[in-house]
Amino acid sequence: MHCCQRTPEHNDREKDKIDEDAFEALFSQLEEDLKTDVIFSEDEKDEITEDDLVRLEQELDEALCDEEFDEVFPSRSDDMNYSDDDEELQPKLKNWQLRRLAYALKIGRRKASIKNLSSELGLERARVLELLREPPPNLVMMCASLPEEVAKNPEPVCEPVESSFDSDISISKSEPKEVVPVHVMQTRWSMQKRIKKVQLITLERVYARTKRPTNAMISSIVHVTNLPWKRVVKWFEDKRLEDGVPVHREPFHRSSHVKTI
What average pLDDT is seen over the chain? Predict the structure, then answer.
């Protein structure tokens, strides 16, 4: 029997070939594993688990609860917007109305007759009560500038009458009340009003030029400062008396058309 003997070189070649085949198989297996891992990872990203569904349901329930809460209990910002709109709808008060409210605020809300005050101002009773309970800043400042005599002499408070018969008797016994015109009340308030700093500067500038301004100059001062005529004349008289300016009397001229104070 004839046996084929392999040389050492032939054996080395076969070993190298086996090693190369093993490495190629290993690399191909690694490539397959990498491909499958990528596919599985992409599938896992797109897949939604049960935990994700539970969290999604909780978020939806919370969102629906928040919407229902907002409908039942509106937010504070919405309330502030509504209140701002209501304030804008309220008509702006005039100066004489503010002064009258300041007098009522000075003597006290409990001592003032809300019914008479609302009819005098032409405002609703609820509006008058709101202004006296929560006065705006300009009304508070005007009340602080009023003299203290107002608080000492409060307005008469009308007490409620039980029956119409008693009211008829009280009306017959009471004396007729003097009705003061509105323009007279405005003049009194203007006389008691303090002179502002800007108005005082204007008066002092005119006084520096002339101690006795003419009627035309007084008209200009009244137009610029919005002070009443009598208030301007009284200021110049007091200023001359304070500075010791002697009384100046001009001779009578029949043709003179310009008067001085």
Answer: 69
